[in-house]
Design a protein that fits this description.
This protein is an all-alpha fold. The chain is built from 16 helices and four strands.
Length: 426
């Protein structure tokens, strides 16, 4: 009887092995179920489509605005010392992120710069979601003392001095800044004490005209950032082959370890819970137990739900081009964060091997370190009260396989032409 049970067990294993390798040698067909195959196909970059319309930015898809925005993005004159540009912390060679653990402009910041890849498809910006549009996000570093360190008036003067024709062809007339009595050299509601005093002395109408030009600067940068598109990666080619049941192409595209990493990613490792969709991000906020920044605690989403509501550049603000009904994400934002403290935005995993270091403070130098953190889960005693993750109990080889899979998401970035759309000057 014992021999019979062994025989039946052997036959069952052989049948399972044949089912997995029906189209080739063992391991050639990973044997994904129909639901797993559909899930994998949902991650393909082709499912992303064009960026959704941004009602708050009427020049979001205007080619001349994008052309101006590209110049501004790489121009270090948009900083107090003339040496810091947007590209200083969003470097194309590093997936439009920063290889420094904590980004440095005029000074050292508290966080690592998130990649801009896929940003046009998001609802919230920065690690804590304190901005609700790509153009509002572009403005914040310019007035930050530790980043560009520029005051609002100086930013608009830079536009007037170096880009007047390009600006006015899209937005209309710039404020006439030659009247020094009305428009001081430096002024800002967020600058140093002298800049704030100068701002308060300005007439309300002049403050509005300068702020509108400043907002338009951000809208131009956002228009260019929306043109950044990702080519299909090896994973995307694999997903497409899986949908076609083309096992020969699948074998030629991913290695056995990369396939195993994919299976873990959508299965036991549960990475797919937060890293889903074509950008491998749900765009939401989760507490993952990473340490808080040195000094004051970084409250993350807990605080930002209040910050974004008060922002003068939000979707419902006076410088937005949207009608209130188009601002659903902000209108229905709860008045307080219902989750754990220390919740931060889930970054895209597209080109993730190029965007080290990881986490909001850049404290993890490698993808393996990130996975070891998640694998430990709730065993991290100091993070138990502020983490959603649980121990995965994966072995070392399985962690390496997930890292191998993540490497298949690397691809090239290009700029798509902006559709030609007429823009009414305001």
């Amino acid at each position: 009887m014992k021999r019979l049970r062994v025989l039946w067990a052997g036959l069952a294993w052989l049948a399972a092995a044949n089912a997995l390798s029906v189209d080739g040698p063992a391991g050639a067909n990973p044997g994904f179920s129909a639901s797993e195959a559909r899930l994998i196909h949902s991650l393909e970059i082709g499912k992303l489509g064009v960026p959704p319309a941004d009602a708050s930015n009427r020049v979001a898809d205007h080619p001349e605005a994008a052309a101006l925005g590209r110049q501004l993005f790489f121009d270090p004159r948009l900083s107090r010392n003339g040496q810091v540009s947007c590209a200083s912390c969003h470097q194309p060679a590093f997936g439009f992120s920063d290889p420094a653990a904590q980004s440095r402009g005029m000074g050292k910041t508290a966080r690592n710069s998130m990649t801009l890849l896929g940003a046009a498809w998001q609802n919230w910006y920065f690690w804590d979601g304190s901005k609700d549009s790509l153009w509002a996000q572009a403005l914040a570093p310019i007035e930050s003392a530790s980043e560009h360190g520029l005051d609002r008036m100086s930013a608009v003067r830079m536009l007037a001095e170096h880009y007047p024709a390009a600006y006015e062809s899209v937005f209309g007339t710039l404020p006439d800044l030659r009247d020094g009595a009305r428009f001081p050299p430096r002024a800002s509601p967020l600058g140093d004490a002298a800049a704030r005093r100068a701002w308060r002395r300005m007439a309300p109408a002049d403050r509005v005209s300068v702020t509108r030009a400043f907002a338009n600067l951000g809208k131009s940068i956002a228009a260019w950032e929306r043109t950044l598109v990702l080519a299909p990666s090896r994973f995307d080619r694999y997903a497409n082959a899986l949908a076609r049941k083309d096992t020969a192409s699948m074998r030629a595209t991913l290695s056995a370890d990369e396939e195993a990493g994919l299976r873990l990613f959508i299965g036991r490792a549960n990475c797919i819970h937060c890293h889903n969709g074509p950008l491998f991000s749900n765009g939401e906020f989760h507490a993952t137990g990473v340490r808080f920044s040195t000094g004051a605690e970084d409250a993350g989403r807990t605080r930002s739900v209040l910050t974004v509501r008060k922002d003068e550049f939000n979707c419902l603000g006076p410088y937005s081009d949207a009608q209130p009904e188009a601002c659903a994400a902000l209108r229905f934002l709860p008045p307080s964060w219902p989750g754990k403290p220390g919740a931060f935005k889930v970054p895209t995993l597209r080109n993730v091997s190029r965007t080290a270091p990881y986490m909001r403070t850049g404290e993890m130098a490698s993808l393996r370190a990130v996975l070891e953190h998640y694998n430990a889960g709730s065993r991290i005693a100091r993070a138990r009260d502020r983490t959603e993750i649980v121990a995965l109990h994966l072995i070392s080889r399985e962690l390496d396989q997930i890292v191998a899979f993540l490497g298949t998401l690397d691809t090239e970035v290009s700029e798509r032409p902006s559709p030609v759309r007429a823009v009414a000057h305001r």
